[in-house]
Amino acid sequence: MADLTFDPKDVAQLSPSLVDGRPSLHDVTEAVSIHTEIETHRNWYIALAISGSVTLLLGSMLAYLVATGIGVWGNNNPVGWGWDITNFVFWIGIGHAGTLISAILFLFRQKWRTSINRFAEAMTLFAVACAGIYPLVHVGRPWRAYWLFPIPNADLNMWQNFRSPLLWDVFAVSTYATVSALFWYVGLIPDLATIRDRATTKLRHTIYGIASLGWRGSATHWKNYEKAYMILAGLSTPLVLSVHTIVSFDFAVSIIPGWHTTIFPPYFVAGAIFSGFAMVITLMVIARWVFKVEHLVTITHLENMNKVILATGTIVGYAYATEFFIAWYSGNPYEMYTFVNRAMGPYAWAYWTMVSCNVISPQFFWFKKLRTSIPFMFVLSIFVNIGMWFERFVIIATSLHRDFLPSSWGYFRPTIVDILTFFGTFGLFITLFVFFTRFLPIIAVSEVKGMMIQAEHEKHYLPATTGSTEPVKVH
Amino acid sequence: MIQIEGIGNQTGKKFWRSLNELSSTPKFRQWLGQEFSEDVTDLLDSGSRRRFMQIMAASMGLAGLTACRRPVEKILPFSKGVEGLVHGAPQHYASVMSLGGQAHGVVVEAIDGRPIKIEGNKNHRLSNGAANVWAQSSVLNLYDPDRSQKVIEKGKESTWEAFQVAFKGMSLADGEELRVLSGAVVSPTLAGLRAGLIAKYPKAKWVEYEPVNEDESLAGTELAFGDRLRPQFDLSKADVVVSLDSDFLQLDNPGLNVIREFARRRKAVDSMVPAGHATPHKTAAHGEEHKSEPKAEHKESAPPAAGETPAAPVGPGINRLYVVESNFTLTGAQADHRLRLRASDVSSFAADLAREISALPQGLKILGQSDKFLSVVAKDLLAHKGRAIVIAGPRQPARVHALAALMNQVLGNIGETVSYTRPTAAASGAGIVALAKEMAAGQIKTLVVLGSNPVYSAPADLDFGAKYKSVPTTIQLSSELDETALASTWHLPESHYLESWGDAVSSDGTVSLQQPLIEPIFKTRSAIEVAALLAGTASPKGYDLVKSQSKLAEPAWRQGLHDGIVAGTQASAIKAVANAKAVEAAIVAAPKPAPGLEVTFFPSASSYDGRFANNAWLQEAPEPMTKVVWDNAALVSPKTARELKLEDGAVLSIERRGRKVEAPVMIQPGHADNSVTLTLGYGRSKVGRVGTGIGYNAYALRTSDAMGIATGVTVTKVARTYTLVTTQEHHDQAGRPVVREASVAAYKEEPAFASHEDAHVELFQLFDSYDYSKGNQWGMVVDLQSCIGCNACLVACQSENNIPVVGRDQVSRGREMHWIRLDRYFTGGEEDAQVVYQPMACQQCENAPCESVCPVAATVHSPEGLNDMAYNRCVGTRYCANNCPYKVRRFNYYNWHKDIEEVSKMVFNPDVTVRMRGVMEKCNYCVQRVQEVKIAHKVAGRTPIQDGDVLTACQQTCPAEAITFGNINDPNSAVAKLKNNNRNYTLLHELNIKPRTTYLAKVRNPNPELA
Questions:
Q1: Which of A382, B6, B496, B825 has its CA 20 to 30 A from that of B468?
Q2: Tell me: the pLDDT tens digits for B405-416?
């Protein structure tokens, strides 16, 4: 017979509070909006100066590349793709967490997403911006890169080759970028209106006024907004799966051993979510401390993300094992060689770095203590990001450097330009974040408030603080 | 005599350009110098090689404007028209290239008056339509910006006129103090002028010197026959070939005919089994597999056709090659049995072999080792009397050549597989030794050097450079500002053979005529013009000299020019009888080879003796065995390397009699122990921007008494290391059926062994194939049985298709651009290693993996089965290259043609696009040649293209006839027949990409007794 006695603990478990310390609605607005309103902090300028310089470095590297040729990178024959596509896939993968949090978790009513989704979506956009650089500049003649788009032009006078995965990539990534931007922007509208309403200067009022598209917070607005948000979430959901599936087709559709495998789509998607969540952790740990929103982005949020990291990391590890099994089971000598070569060949160091970071390190998250330790998760998230970068590098470089005919085998070494370009993309990424944190609310204020109203209702019989069963005084 | 009126020449009427000039102030003279002439010191002191390579792709650069330099009366604008000249249409002229003591008959393709491509002359017996790497590359030398362009007197620019005046002023008297040094005189005209010079200066002497020569061979025949004779090989009749340290297929090649004859006998293995039936999937062109199956059934049920009956083997069958050598040469790579032996031990082996076949008395036991090998070779030779041949290499001392002659005589080979003719040239190391002595004694006042570079290439013990400088007047004619030019009183710029008249006698005696295709680009003159000037001949014009020397009347002269050869001039064989006693005496008298380390000197497969050092095509052509580019290495065996604690890239200091060379080591499987192979032709201290300072100079160790093999060397490992750049880093096939090979026995048992090595997988295709059963369907077959890996195709392709040179640094980054590569794989252990070659270019797959992945459809299939590249459409994603299982696509990582000047582009083939940076390129079966022939046939009224009408550049030049190209839809075409050959197989068949290029597997003919 079930025990039907009402216990506050059960309710806490069923519907945990997502905000610490019981701030008022106004407190939340203040906490989030204040960063866009106060006088610019000196540290912000310092941050911008540093990240901006690195972005300029990226710009100069790209200018040098375009002016000189792909030869400034380490790419060669047989390794036609090196760090360029590695970094492209790496950044695209980072973006996936944002979409997953905004769309899939939204549809699954995972309420804990509310305080991190804005941040994660911004990360998606900025990561896609970083990723988008590579396909454009990695081509030999970047001034002709627009030929990849099916736009009528006198130069080409013909259709693109729709059999090419690179063309699918063009559609997948551009759709992804568009939908992500729209989704992010639609979510921003109520918050932009809040800032507009709090504006003290004409200029702010005008700019945020235009950006908030005349939002008045009327019931009709909310109704339309919710619908639009739901539709966009619905549109984004398949994109989470499709983008990285298509990116994986760049490899899977080829005939190169190590690339030509059917496991790639799920394996890439899992890897993308894995790396994306790790990146969110890395950034969130810093941001919640810098902007003092620890009460809005709580340990619970971080812990939930760590659980996702654990799950996807394990899937990725399983995929690595499956690849090896299939290589052996297929009986294909080229396939077998490629995988043995990955683990024991000249790039074994990269392979084992990848395995250590991606498969072994997330297993620590089985322990709640580690899962909820901020320093630990910060370090581990960086490990995961390193590991996932190496995963792409291992897939690309080790498969290409030794394929069918031993006579053509080679080795890839990055040049300083490769390294500085990649470093520069971090500059761009951070710079965009620096601007984001200065001018836009980093947490979805309206959504967080929605969660709080629920909490307000529950306060009559529940202690508001998560994890505590001590009775609290009600104001 | 021509007198240029004006500046610097005070004879004749004085003209002036300005008042400044009239006043002739120092300032004006300075201005004049700056304005109209490049500072000579600039020419002598060029920038760094690497910088240059970055800027210029093919070491072509500043060449003068030909139009400006041509004599005014010959200029005709295209609008006026030259009779018979079609703008843009290629014209072909026969000519001849002299190299060392040899002459290569060539046909030169010129477009709009500029020579762009060298091919072999079909009429010339030795070249037979093929050309080697040096002939192919020679066209690049013509447009070399670093060529010597001006007369230089003591480092200052001068003129031909000034030289002529100065020469007239030299008191040569009876010529007692005059010496002329030249390379081997293979030109009858030059020989005639030499006679004229000697007549004018009776006490003068003319010395011939070639650093790579046939001294020992001639001395050997003198020892054996009492007469200096040159052996002529006929390998078509030889069933058993024994090479005693002779790389007769490459570095010691006496003529490309030898390669062709050898290769034909290798391919004759086909006659040893019944003709092949193509396995259905082998004929890639005919769409789906099942379509051809009924045909095969039909074949079986029908009464066997005449040629298809499994009859007894017809024809001579495959030959058998035994090679005894120290270095692993291309000849060694073809060997059925190879004995690696220190070069100085080869003479003992030769003596033992001669004893074994009873050419020498039985008591003479010299070496006593390798008994099994020795007796088997001897037995095989004896079993093939009159159908065998023994060939000795030029590094071996005279007695080995004498032994070879003696063995050939005892075996009855003379008159069958080998004959002897009298050589024309007499280049000899002895001449330059005597010359050095005279120089040291101060007996020479005037030394004229014609087209040689003795300061660089003379034996080290002569200290030629210092002695040369001590001669009061030295005059050097050379096409480069080389080491000797720097030391000369007068340096005269020499014309390229494509710019001047001349003639040459080939090693078989055939006289060939050399006709220019272009006026000299710079103010240069040929050797015969200068010799005529020295001899005071009335008409020093090349044309007159050559024509009068040839003594040909008008129709015969024109015919000779047309054919490139003068008919009926081939030397006839001389009846020679070897004196066994004399040879035996020499053997007995010969000192026992000293134990320990020895050094052997080989010419370079790229720069030859150094004269091609500034040729970027050759520098970038990988050395065939080591695949090293832009360098020469010191080769040692793995065992010796272990003993000396060497690894690849270690630098070895090699010392002999106080002379020292530091060379980077490359460990060569199959190399003889206790032997170091050094390559000549590198370490040039003064040459153009391409060749200066690369590699080590092996001449520094080469003394006049040890031109081939030097014993008594000591080696030490130097602390520094040096990375040798190679184009292929993996030597084995990783257990994959890449190059398929069998022994004759296995082949007889299973003729289609090669296709049976395919993975047994069910091939599945998602989409219907394009119907390739109509029209011309181009395909290629490469016969691995005959490919010797000599690089001729690679350079021919580079020349034909405007392939850029990228330089050492870029090759080290894996960015070489060659469309065809010669994959070399080692088989067997490190000591008994064997080598196979596989030319690898785009395979023109019908299901091309590159095509489906290109997002902009820049690489697409033609209805004739070619995998076309649309360079204009390519954006350079490199996905195609990644997805190419053969990795034959080449990407322009930089603009390799950056900053190239207008006039430097003269070497480019105008029929082929020069690719910009950022686009992909690759072999396209010389589509421009295909189109040219198609257009010609269309113009002629849509006549069908016959087999052999279209030749790809690689196919055309291949001396071994390893490449066959044609229409696979024509069952009578050579290529279609070869696709039905037993040995035919498709590389990476299991990928179902249906390549149009297939390979014929290699069959070796090992002696069962040595198994």
A1: B496
A2: 999 999 999 988
What's the average pLDDT block by block, 10 residues per block, for chain A (475 residues)? Answer: 52 52 67 71 90 95 93 92 92 84 77 78 89 92 89 75 91 89 89 86 90 88 89 86 89 92 90 89 86 80 89 92 91 90 92 93 92 92 93 93 91 93 94 88 77 53 45 42
Q: Do B854 and A164 count as a contact with CB atoms less than 8 A apart?
A: yes
For B994, the 3-state DSSP assignment is coil
Omega before B313 within 30 of 0, i.e. cis:
no
Task: Indicate the fold that domain B594-721 takes in CATH.
Answer: Barwin-like endoglucanases (2.40.40)
Class for the domain spanning B215-269+315-421: alpha beta
In angstroms, how far is CA A282 from the centroid of its own chain?
Answer: 11
Rounded to the nearest angstrom, the gap between the alpha carbon of residue B290 and the centroid of all alpha carbons in its chain is 46
pLDDT of A438-465, one tens digit each?
Answer: 888 888 777 777 766 554 554 444 444 4
Predicted local confidence at residue B692, as pLDDT: 87
Write out the CATH class of domain B741-762+778-1010. Answer: alpha beta
Contact B855 A160 (CB under 8 A): yes
A76: how many CB neighbours lie within 10 A of its CB? 26
Q: In the A/B pair of chains, how many CB contacts fall below 8 A?
A: 170
Alpha carbon distance B875, A146 (integer Å): 9
- For chain A, give every domain's residue range: 19-151+159-458
Residue of B nearest to A134 (CA): B877
Q: Which residue in A has a C-alpha nearest to residue B857's C-alpha?
A: A161
Task: State whether ipTM is beyond 0.90.
Answer: no
Q: What per-residue confidence (pLDDT) applies to B41?
A: 39
Write down the architecture of domain B19-142 according to CATH: Single Sheet (2.20)
Check residue B731 and give its pLDDT.
Answer: 82
> B39: which residues sit within 8 A by CB, 6+ positions away?
B33
Four-CA torsion B805, B807, B809, B810, nearest 10 degrees = 0
Domain boundaries, given as residue ranges, for chain B: 19-142, 151-207+429-566, 215-269+315-421, 594-721, 741-762+778-1010
What tokens does B717 get? 């490992």
Q: Given A69, A145, A159, which is nearest B875 (Cβ)? A: A145
Contact residues on chain A for B813, CB-CB shorter than 8 A? 71, 74, 76
Domain topology for A19-151+159-458: Formate dehydrogenase/DMSO reductase fold (1.20.1630)
CATH code linked to domain B151-207+429-566: 3.40.50.740
Q: Is B732 on the interface with A (CB under 8 A)?
A: yes
Residues in chain B within 8 Å Cβ distance of A409: 729-730
pLDDT-flagged residues of chain B (< 70): 1-82, 276-315, 363-370, 425-427, 901-903
Rounded distance, CA B673 to CA B411, Å?
31
